[in-house]
Write a structure and sequence with these properties.
alpha+beta; 157 residues
Length: 157
């Protein structure tokens, strides 16, 4: 089953659900300077736009992508049937970064292989291609279970 939602609606839903337990001012408390805030923790499009080109291609191939139709709304397309495969890859990114060889081998990779596969280079890459994408998948799972989303039957092009 494939889904498509306006990103604006998804972000608004998450703000409404999580604001009471994770206020937007949370980052201000940790940085003590609102000017240092770079991203909103409820902008799912931010998390998807920061991954490497090869990871973006992997996500598209597995039913997770952003797109703009003719009317200009930014949409998120996703297919929950592929969430486990995406989880596996994002977990492998983190394990490879942390040099967890034994755990990585359980996923079918050797040390360094995942980083080469997705052309990752620095510390930020573990967030953009690992943790942030896991947040996206977990958030979409919550949205499917608890949120008002339309179900569509359309193919990514």
């Amino acid at each position: 089953m494939r889904y498509c939602c306006r990103v604006e609606d998804v972000n608004a839903w998450f703000r409404d659900v999580f604001a009471p337990i994770y206020p937007q001012e949370f980052d201000t408390v940790t940085t003590h300077d609102p000017k240092e805030l770079e991203d909103d923790p409820f902008e799912i499009d931010y998390y998807l736009s920061e991954c490497s080109p090869k990871m973006s291609a992997f996500l598209r191939d597995h039913g997770l992508a952003l797109g703009r139709p003719w009317n200009g709304d930014l949409l998120i397309y996703f297919n929950p049937e592929w969430f486990e495969a995406i989880d596996r890859e994002t977990t492998a990114v983190q394990l490879d970064y942390d040099s967890c060889g034994g755990e990585l081998e359980k996923l079918g990779y050797s040390l360094g292989e995942v980083w080469k596969k997705y052309e990752l280079h620095g510390d930020d890459d573990v967030d953009y291609n690992g943790g942030y994408l896991q947040i996206v998948i977990d958030s979409l799972r919550a949205l499917i279970k608890h949120g008002p989303i339309p179900q569509i039957d359309t193919y990514l092009r």
